[in-house]
Specification:
heterotrimer, A mainly alpha (283), B mainly alpha (354), C alpha/beta (255), B: 354 residues, mainly alpha, ABC transporter involved in vitamin B12 uptake, BtuC, 0% strand, globular, C: 255 residues, alpha/beta, Rossmann fold, 6-stranded mixed β-sheet, 4-stranded antiparallel β-sheet, 10 helices, 23% strand
């Protein structure tokens, strides 16, 4: 049962990060390798707001979301937009460039050491014979509420439905007269918010350090490949699959190799089905 | 012909090759200290790996993010065989190359079924698996402790490769061989097949090129280059740890490749040497080099996607085309065939891969 | 030459090509027309082996090539061009064409390493073939230019040349006259005729109706993935079904 809770915690965070990644991929066909760095920056901004400014946890989360959204939009404007028609290899390299830059910048300013992010929710909740740290509950509830909000946004608002339309058919959306620039910026902003909130939720039970986004971004990529790149439900389901696989694998097999599980899963699945689990034939 | 053009022509002549090799041979005599020779030798070793990356990424257009992992596989194969199993250096060296090729073949067969982004992401994961395995599989790799006391290449009693200068020449020999083979491949029909794949899978397949076979070949060549470089590296620094498999090395190599000129022949060498010396001369950059490299990568792909050498080659190609047209016009007005006509396209075309 | 039997391709539940049967004769110009989304490009992709059909078969010179890989089909003598011409921009035009003959050569890595006689001979062969096809499409004067610097029409011709360098017997042209002006279109049409005179069978998709009507020996009309008519330009012009589905309602008719 404890493993289910762990799986759910991990899975919801993975899902959140993968969602941002898959949205950007769906709209722009850019595999944003810098997404993990955005996540990391989000954690640092929250940390600074809480520890150095002394503001409250939720304010910090809000601040981080705003800052990272801005940063993501900046990346889109300055880097990905000019590369729109470049060969596919270029935007990947540019994304790696952004990632390296952000990490080095953070490391220069705050150093490479691990920091612990404070959280107001340190209590333990007992429920039906299970003990659960409050922060984990917060992660699960927070992540899923955010996903629900995102879902409503995409389904119910005009802007949301243009994003979905463009993800489904880029040229078509062009013809209908959707402002591609605005949608691209919007999508990057959303992905930034998701990354920052994910980081602020997860960091208290983890640690904050410049390379914290590395492993996460790779797992997020695994997730969106499994779930079908660009697919929103795929990202959530994929996130849960990987989360549970790690929680149970770490428990029953070995904690040493816990991090390898996601990648091994990817290798196995892609060897059998090169287009991912949930894709329907054509990409 | 202006001065700039004269200089550019000179870069293309066989004489330039001799000058470059001579410069490399004389370098240890003009270097002000042993450390400079050491840095240069290390740059040569890295350049070999970058040439490998250039085959799969530059020629064939597949962004392979596991390259650093295969470098580490070469280094670890050599280290494990020599230190734990007492193999002689050169046998272990050959085995390192073979293991790079074999594992590259396995990884290639699986990963190359994926296209573009999927391939890049998949190889990123492969690189990470390699790193994790090296870090965690303590019985085989000694885990986080790394492997120490790796023997230097044996000189068969003639030379002592624990000394910096002899090793410098050894690295030079291997690098020149690597460039020579890379040039052979790039200028051959095989290299043309690779480049067709780089333009588009669809186009290449419609020209009767077997995508899988050619991609796997390019991939295996690149991982072999990487593992040979890794083995040399192990024999040079003689201590290795899991950090050799860090994905940062792959990113470093991408930077070298992009600065020099992706898909060009001299680009990898130029980029590796330039960046290595730049980092060396700005010591404070060592740890934070990515603050400069990161934006540099972005600026390069946006404004100079072909790097220094590639931009130069395109410029030169245009000049030659213009010169050729003038020559044609002249010969047309004089109504006699110009000798330029037969020779220029050939020269130019060779230059385009240089 | 090419015999298509009940060819069907479904994506999910949608049939992009539905139960199409047709025969193309050798040494003729065959055209496929139809409104946007009629399944023309999918049809080409099926013939060229870029995707496998869901049902039906494709026979080429009496051989069953259904579901065969793209590169094998190319080696059997079917070449194609694409709607958007992608070429190696940084190389010269001639240089771009040399790889076109690669499929008729045998050299492998070992030949490259030892620079074997076979490799040298084959490279010579490929180069001279490239020069030949460049002459054929009338571009020998720009063979030395950087490909990025040539005009759109010239790029189309280079794409033709590249397809011809594979020594094909059947060439599939996907909208060869897209994005070029009427005069250039006329020149391209003569080039297509010249190809047929030299023993190449042509099959093309095109939107420019006047070009098709002047050029084609046989036309197949696709609509919603189904063949609704086939015949000579005259027959097609007067076919009420075609007029109903395509010519009358679509703005392409004006083109």
């Amino acid at each position: 049962m404890q493993q289910v809770l762990n799986g759910l915690t991990l899975g919801s965070i993975y899902g959140l990060v993968a969602l941002g990644l898959t949205l950007v991929y769906g709209i722009l066909h850019v595999p944003n390798f810098a997404h993990g760095a955005l996540y990391m920056v989000g954690a640092y901004v929250s940390y600074v707001i809480m520890v150095d400014v002394g503001a409250n946890y939720w304010l910090a989360m809000l601040g981080a979301a705003a800052a990272v959204a801005l940063l993501a939009v900046l990346c889109e404007r300055l880097v990905f937009n000019p590369l729109r028609d470049a060969p596919p290899i270029h935007d990947k390299i540019a994304a790696i460039g952004i990632m390296l830059f952000l990490e080095a910048l953070v490391q220069m300013h705050w150093g490479a050491e691990f920091r612990r992010m404070p959280t107001p929710y340190t209590g333990i909740v007992e429920f039906a014979g299970l003990t659960m740290p409050a922060q984990r509950i917060l992660i699960i509830v927070g992540a899923f509420s955010l996903m629900a909000v995102l879902h409503l946004f995409l389904k119910k608002t005009m802007t949301g439905s243009t994003i979905v339309a463009m993800a489904q058919n880029r040229e078509g959306a062009f013809l209908v007269g959707i402002d591609a620039n605005r949608v691209a910026m919007m999508t990057f902003a959303i992905s930034g918010v998701l990354a920052a909130v994910g980081a602020t939720l997860f960091a208290p039970i983890n640690l904050v350090y410049p390379a914290m986004g590395h492993l996460l971004i790779m797992k997020a990529f695994v997730i969106i490949i499994l779930g079908g790149m660009g697919s929103i439900p795929g990202a959530i389901v994929g996130g849960l699959i990987i989360g549970f696989a790690e929680a149970f694998g770490g428990f029953y097999i070995s904690t040493d190799y816990k991090d390898i599980i996601a990648f091994a899963l990817l290798v196995v699945i892609l060897s059998i089905k090169p287009t991912g689990l949930f894709t329907k034939g054509v990409r | 012909m202006n001065a700039l053009q004269k200089i550019s022509e000179f870069f293309m002549t066989p004489a330039m090759k001799i000058v470059m090799i001579l410069a490399a041979l004389l370098f240890p005599f003009v270097a002000s200290n042993e450390y400079q020779i050491y840095v240069m030798a290390l740059a040569f070793v890295w350049a070999i790996a970058v040439y490998g990356m250039n085959i799969i990424t530059g020629l064939c257009g597949q962004l392979n993010l596991a390259h650093g992992g295969f470098f580490a596989i070469g280094a670890y194969t050599l280290a494990i065989l020599t230190v734990d199993h007492g193999w002689a250096f050169w046998w272990a060296f050959v085995a390192a190359g073979v293991s790079g090729a074999l594992l590259g073949f396995l990884a290639g067969v699986v990963s190359l079924r994926l296209k573009e982004h999927y391939f890049a992401i998949f190889t990123l994961c492969v690189g990470f698996i390699i790193y994790l395995l090296i870090d965690k599989w303590e019985e085989l790799t000694h885990g986080a402790l790394g492997i120490i006391n790796i023997p230097a290449p044996s000189g068969f009693g003639l030379v002592d490769f624990t000394e910096t200068t002899p090793f410098y020449y050894l690295a030079l020999v291997f690098m020149v061989l690597s460039i020579w083979l890379a040039a052979r491949i790039a200028n051959s029909l095989l290299g043309r097949s690779f480049r067709a794949i780089r333009i588009s899978d669809e186009l290449a397949a419609s020209l009767g090129i077997n995508l899988m076979r050619n991609k796997v070949l390019a991939f295996v060549l690149s991982t072999t280059y990487a593992s040979v470089a890794g083995a040399l590296y192990a024999g040079m620094v003689r201590f290795i740890g899991p950090a050799e498999a860090d994905v940062v090395h792959t990113f470093d190599m991408i930077t070298f490749l992009l600065v020099g000129g992706i898909g060009t022949l001299m680009g990898p060498l130029f980029g590796t040497l330039a960046i290595t010396w730049l980092t060396q001369s700005l010591q404070f950059l060592e740890e934070y080099r990515m603050i400069v490299f990161g934006p540099l990568l972005v600026v390069l792909v946006i404004f100079f996607p072909r790097g220094v050498v590639g931009t130069f080659l395109t410029w030169r190609g245009r000049r030659l085309a213009a010169a050729h047209e003038t020559a044609q016009k002249e010969s047309a007005s004089e109504k006699k065939p110009s000798s330029n006509k037969a020779t220029t396209p050939r020269n130019q075309e060779a230059g385009n891969h240089a | 030459m090419l015999k298509i039997n009940n060819l069907t391709k479904r994506f999910g539940g949608l049939a992009a090509v539905n139960n199409v049967s047709i025969e193309f004769e050798a040494n003729k110009i065959n055209a496929i027309i139809g409104p946007n989304g009629a399944g023309k490009s999918t049809f080409f992709n099926l013939v060229a082996g870029a995707m496998a059909p869901t049902e039906g078969s494709i026979e080429y010179q009496g051989m069953d090539i259904t579901g065969m890989a793209c590169d094998r089909i190319a080696r059997l003598g079917i070449a194609r061009t694409f709607q958007t011409t992608s070429l190696f921009d940084e190389s010269t035009v001639l240089d771009n064409l040399i790889v076109g003959h690669r499929l008729r050569t045998q050299s492998r890595l070992w030949d490259v390493i030892i620079n074997s006689k076979r490799l040298r001979d084959e490279e010579k062969k490929c180069r001279s073939r490239a020069q030949e096809v460049l002459d054929f499409v009338g571009l020998s004067h720009i063979g030395h230019r950087i490909t990025a610097d040539i005009s759109q029409e010239e790029k189309k011709r280079v794409a033709f040349a590249l397809a011809l360098a594979t020594d094909p017997e059947l060439v599939l042209l996907d909208e060869p006259a897209g994005g070029i002006n009427p005069e250039e279109t006329e020149n391209l049409a003569s080039l297509i005729r010249k190809m047929v005179e030299h023993g190449v069978t042509v099959c093309l998709i095109e939107h420019k109706m006047d070009m098709i009507m002047n050029l084609a020996d046989k036309i197949m009309v696709l609509d919603h993935g189904e063949k609704i008519a086939e015949g000579t330009p005259e027959q097609i012009r007067s076919n009420p079904v075609v007029i109903e589905a395509y010519l009358g309602s679509d703005d392409d008719a004006a083109a």
